[in-house]
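Re: the pair you flagged

First of the two:
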Amino acid sequence: MADNTRRNLLVTLGAAPFAGGLVPKAEASGLDKGLHRVSLKTPREELQEKLLPNVELTTHEGKKVRFYDDLVKDKIIVINFMYAECTGICPGITANLKNVQNILGDRVGRDIFMYSVTLRPGDDGPKQLAHYVEMHGIKPGWQFLTGKPRDVELLRRSLGFYDGNEKLDKDQTNHIGMVRYGNEARQWWAMCPGRAKPTWIVRSILWMDKPLYVKPADQNGGTPGKSSDL
């Protein structure tokens, strides 16, 4: 009797690890199902999907490009919205951004990229935008863009170029005269008025390119390097 009891106990203990192994496996199976509902995308990927749609656009030179893949990814960018026949704030902002381009010099088109997207893609094709570029004396490195109306509208709203007042937002003569700038790789983004002082706009843009670490002052009283004042 004692032997039977002992044998039964050993059988029970021997089965315990297997039973114990089955329970976590069942629980893990339920957990796995839950994991499928959790996004495995990086914050950068999620930001791109929500705010930087990869719509197809056409440059004023007639080249087809993808907004995120070709114009934004890994770049420092400056972007605004306008249209060629605007008699309101567009000409003033364009003139102001020309000064920004002049201050930045050959960095525009090399490691800082400027873009202007038309609000009237139905009217402003590459030919009209090329004429606008020539008329305003825009230098190389600053691209003017058009596309399908629904894609341009998606881009405008995704980037935050809209008025909270729906009635005002529909009136293109009241479009927001802002400029968005950012460093896509670092996920740093900001906005400023398009007619702000050009040197201030440039300083804001260059801040996006600042070192992540600044070497502290040395023991001899030296100070860390810094960008020259503009």
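Second of the two:
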Amino acid sequence: MTSVDEMKTTDFEDGSSNASIRSHLAARIGNYGEGSGELASSTWVSEFQAAFASSEAAEELISFDNIALAISEYERSMVFIDSPWKDYIEGNNNALSNQQKQGAILFLTSVDDGGAGCASCHSGDQFSDGLHHVIAFPQIGPGKGDGDGNNDDFGRARETGNRNDRYHFRTASLLNISATAPYGHSGAYETLRQVVRHYDNPRGRVADFFDQGGWCQLQQFADISDCASLYPFAETNSNQALQQLNRERDNNTALFQNTQINNNETDQIVAFLQALTDPCVEDRDCLAPWIADPALPGPDGMQLNAIGEDGDLL
């Protein structure tokens, strides 16, 4: 929320320190000090008093630390791991289909042993090693912090300043992956099948992506009239990411190897990935405890209620 590129924009506290930005946000929510009156209506004080079982005044109770604590507790409560895969590893041999079991074997088997090698990075209970790797997904979007005007997203290198970290992104968890499209740091792939095929031939899949219309083929750009002119350097940037991957392969520092799997094996891996999703995340009734009541305006009248293409609540 202190980042211009992500949440803050240049309209709020432009040029201020991170500490000043956070203090101002807390004052806005608490309706005190420099944030007094910035929200047209607010019941946040009573909400915080109830949540923290406190009678403290807003100035003491609604601090940035307590805001972060409240959000983190909400996030911490959302543990959706009751997937068919969890059921299977806990002893129910019928929890997965034969196709999903074959996909699991490919996923967990190294490339050298004839598998897809996915678990080299997507490991552990969360299916992520928590580290950063270059995968060379298509480089589309505005980028962040590149400073050269070419909309290039340098990934981890932006934080470390290390040229060797360029185009490295953290390994995503695969829990509930079938419900979290689009995929990749830029949302360039719309289906799990596209993602799996990228691992088989990244250069070929990136070329296909741009040959088929690039970002303009994606749903999120469907209504953009001048779509093709948005990111003129996207293909060049994508090729640079591929070159970085090739350098790491030449240096034997890349865990990502071409999988050389066929179409049937691709289907098996996709089927396995679908088994990592807890059915609750696709059931509004099951998710109801985590969804704000759409009949209410929220504590400050600015509550967002998600709807689908048909206008129905998600």
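The beta strands are 132-134, 168-170.

-B.
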